[in-house]
Write a structure and sequence with these properties.
The chain has twelve helices and eleven strands. Strands 3-2-1-4-5-6-7 form a seven-stranded parallel β-sheet. Strands 10-9-8-11 form a four-stranded parallel β-sheet, sandwiched between helices. The longest helix has 14 residues. The two termini are about 35 Å apart.
Length: about 280
């Protein structure tokens, strides 16, 4: 089976790459086409079994890459991973848009209300023209407005997220964290308002327990603001902002932590929580 996966970007911490692409490389002939170039250091490269087409961050380049891919091969499944991509795919597929649309799988990874108004609008073409519409969890599907559920009809379904248990087991180390009086918390997620890291920091400040440490794994525009807030609350020395880490290192941190914490304002069925559960 030939699969074309359309995503905004990939990298060593990318969910579409780690959760959806790598585990299936031995079963499917997969091409990943991105809108943006990968934003990690130049030493990182995707798996050599993968046909990787990297965009330059422009709409013109992305549509051109999709059009060349569609002209050069017949894909059985075209995965649309975010709302922005559906309309761009349909534009690239002209004049064969209906034929291409029937082979698409659009995935919704969060609650409908969490999407920005612009992105909700960009979802609509996939609901009316696309093939399969898959919500990652029952909560995500229940959040879709009734009129859109009617538009999706039988094409709309819910599939629970899953994680690569073999990879999680490989990341486990036999040695245990040294026994001490510390209690280590880990939180994983992009540093933006939706993930609500600020609430975790405020909770840490309120309980006044210097023996509790917090590691926040993830990058994003909120780093400076979160550091300033942690300093203002007097808990900056208890917090490590680890930045975006490669997936295997993130799993290692989860194995070694005492507990995982998430106060996100909206999710579908979050991968980070599932991975933390799998790590015990």
């Amino acid at each position: 089976m030939r699969v074309l996966r359309l995503v905004l970007r990939v990298g060593p911490t990318s969910g579409p790459y780690n959760q959806l692409t790598l585990p299936a490389l031995d079963r499917f002939e997969t091409t990943v086409c991105t809108f943006y170039p990968h934003h990690f250091d130049s030493d990182w490269q995707p798996d050599l079994r993968l046909n990787y087409v990297q965009g330059d961050g422009s709409t013109k380049s992305f549509i051109g890459n999709i059009r060349r891919l569609l002209q050069g091969a017949e894909f059985d499944v075209i995965h649309v991973h975010s709302p922005h991509i559906g309309p761009l795919l349909f534009a690239a597929a002209m004049p064969r848009v209906l034929s291409v649309a029937r082979r698409t799988v659009m995935t919704l990874h969060s609650s409908y209300s969490v999407y920005r108004k612009r992105n909700r609008f960009l979802l609509w073409p996939s609901f009316f023209m696309g093939g399969k519409l898959v919500c990652c969890g029952n909560a995500s599907m229940a959040s879709v407005p009734g009129w859109l559920q009617i538009a999706g009809g039988r094409r709309l379904s819910s599939i629970a997220n899953g994680v690569d248990l073999d990879r999680i087991d490989r990341a486990r180390h036999d040695e245990r964290r040294p026994m001490d009086d510390r209690f280590d918390l880990v939180s994983v997620g992009a540093l933006r308002d939706l993930k609500n890291h600020a609430a975790v920091i405020h909770s840490l400040a309120r309980i006044k327990r210097p023996d509790i440490t917090l590691t926040i794994i993830g990058g994003g525009p909120g780093l400076g603001r979160l550091k300033d807030e942690a300093a203002r609350l007097g808990v900056i020395t208890q917090i490590q902002f680890a930045g975006p880490l490669p997936r295997d290192e993130t799993l290692d941190r989860l194995w070694r932590a005492d507990a995982f914490i998430s106060l996100s304002k909206g999710e579908g069925l979050p991968i980070a929580v599932l991975e933390a559960m799998a790590c015990g």
